[in-house]
Amino acid sequence: MALESNERPGRPIAKFESMLKTDDVYFFDAEDFEDIIHHYLNNGKIALAKKAIKIGLQQHPDSTELKLLDVEVLVFENNLDQAEELLDKLQLLDANNEEIYIQRANIYSKKDNHEAAIVLLQKALLLSDNAFDIHSLMGMEYLFMDDFKLAKENFMKCVSFDEQDYSSLYNVIYCFEFLEDFDGAILYLNDYLDRNPYCEVAWHQLGKQYFEKRLFKEALAAFDFAIISDDTFIGAYFEKGKVLEKLGKYEDAIENYETTINIEDPTSHAYLRIGKCHEKLNNDDMAKYYYYQTVHEDPLLDKGWLAITDFYFQKRDAKKALYYINKALNIDGENPLYWKKCAQINATLKDFHKADYAYKQAVDLGNYELDTWLKWSKVTYKNKDLGASIQILTQGKEFYPENAKLQYLLAGYQLLAEDPINARITLMDALKLDIEKLFIFEEEFPQFAETEWALNIISHIKKTSR
Q1: Which residues contact 466 (CB under 8 A, 6 or more apart)?
Q2: How buried is residue 205: exposed, middle or buried, by Cβ count under 10 Å (0-12/13-18/19+)?
Q3: Does the N terminus or the C terminus of the chain have fewer Cβ atoms within 10 A?
Q4: Which residues pair with 15 in a beta bridge?
Q5: pLDDT score of 72
Q6: At 26, is the secondary structure helix, strand, or coil?
Q7: Residue 159: CB partners within 8 Å, gap ≥ 6?
Q8: Long-range CB contacts (< 8 A, 24+ apart) of 213-222?
Q9: What is the pLDDT of residues 51-99, one digit of tens each?
Q10: Are 300 and 332 in contact (CB under 8 A)?
Q11: Which runs of E-coded beta strand occur in 321-417?
């Protein structure tokens, strides 16, 4: 039997969940069902939201709001055709309902047609008294389109509606940062703080902008104000620690990082930064302790394993460095930074075959840094594989066509391979790029630098460049 809502006291959500555990059927107002469904959607409990929608529509079959919530769930689960059919029916009944346009926009967004989604959101905006949510959705669509200027404008409107909307505030600053407009972000945040002087989020973001501009004194002041506004805000302590590191105040930096650990559970990032500070202070035992704590806390944090590896590598203990980089590779063999470090260590140990293999893995996994190509070519040269050295630098030249050092080395290897025609072309290109770096060729290949062949090329380039 159906029971009226006033027959069972308590909040609608508790009463609804009680109903699910019994054979009773309780009656709820349509508005109660909307609250229940929103609660479950906001908490990611989709199955319960669907149950509430089903029962709600049984009790209120003509409720447009409940049908729109049904559409929302269908869109979330990618049942887009079914959602569009339901929206078509709803639009015949209520053509001026802005939520219909919003859900159609969500469908277009799911289909990666963000321009069409924005057109529909603009229509919804004309029909809505609550523009706040729509501007937020439009901002996200512009982000999908990489139009950071218009995204920023829409998120700014959200903040102007509700200055406690920190999600939109973060998005505004994200857009400023992507546009590399740090000065604009600073002006915007200072203006915001004039109206909200105790907003720790804004002070924190302001400090980060100053940090980007290397205005460390101003950054420290901003983080201090964030801490004054909320003395449990671990992000402000952490960022303040980074500033103090830059200023060489390692003990003060450690104090701030330790504060973050005292406030909340320890993080691998805090341990890592403390270890770095101790290393700068030559507290080697403490540095090692915190580096080991870093990888214990998060075994997949590449920076932790690299810190331990670098620590031993800098202490000229290449064998221990190799041991730890191999441990890292056992955990994540797809990390190009691990392979590159492995190559450098093996080269130091004069195991050039393993160094060659490691550099190849690093490049295959996407590491295309200049020094990777240069050092890899030297490793293969020491392996007496001149053809590989030439091939590696030729490939590197595709990524760095304007790098003179790469060209000088390539010319030298081509001469060693008895290929004077290509060597001449390459050396001329190198000289045209930067004749001041000729010393690279002279130091690496002294047997060719003073030959008549080389001197003629150099003389020719000097004359034509005048």
Answers
A1: none
A2: buried
A3: C
A4: none
A5: 77
A6: strand
A7: 165, 168, 169, 172, 192
A8: 213/182, 213/183, 213/186, 214/246, 216/243, 216/246, 216/247, 219/243, 220/244
A9: 787 877 777 877 777 777 777 777 787 777 777 777 777 777 777 788 8
A10: yes
A11: none
| Contact in structure between 308 and 324 (CB atoms under 8 Å) | yes
Q: Are 239 and 256 in contact (CB under 8 A)?
A: no
Kindly give the parts of the chain with pLDDT less than 70. Answer: 1-10, 462-466
Token pair 């939109």 is found at: 168
**Which residues are bridge partners to 25 per DSSP?**
2
Q: Is 277 in contact with 254 (CB distance < 8 Å)?
A: yes
Dump pLDDT digits (tens) for 343-385. Answer: 999 999 999 999 999 999 999 999 999 999 999 999 999 999 9
DSSP state of 116: H
Specify the DSSP element, H or E, that contains 3: strand 2-3
CA–CA distance, 13 with 38 (Å, rounded to integer): 10
Q: Look up residue 311 and give its two tokens.
A: 């620590």
Q: Where do we find the tokens 């409720």?
A: 63
Which position has the token pair 């029916």?
Answer: 89
Residues present in the chain in total: 466
Please say whether the beta carbons of 411 and 440 come within 8 A: no
Place of tokens 């998060």: 298
Tell which phi-psi region holds residue 165, choosing left (phi > 0), alpha (psi between -120 and 50) or beta: beta
Lookup: tokens for 358: 């490691």
The number of C-alpha atoms within 13 Å of 104 and in the hemisphere containing its C-beta is 23
Given the DSSP bridges, would you call strands 2-3 and 25-26 parallel, antiparallel or unpaired? Answer: parallel
CA separation for the pair 34, 11 (Å, rounded): 13
6 DSSP 8-state letter:
G
Count of CA atoms in the C-beta half-sphere (13 A) of 195: 9
CA distances from 67 to 86, 128, 244, 338, 452 (A): 8, 19, 56, 53, 87
239 membership: H or E segment, kind and range: helix 234-246
Q: Residue 184 contacts by C-beta under 8 Å, 6 or more apart in sequence?
A: 176
Predicted local confidence at residue 9, as pLDDT = 37
Q: Which of 350, 331, 328 is nearest to 340 (CA)?
A: 328
Tokens of residue 389, six digits: 């050295």
Distances (CA, A) of 433 to 35, 389, 465: 69, 21, 11
pLDDT tens digits for range 441-462: 989 998 887 788 778 887 777 6
Amino acid at 39: H
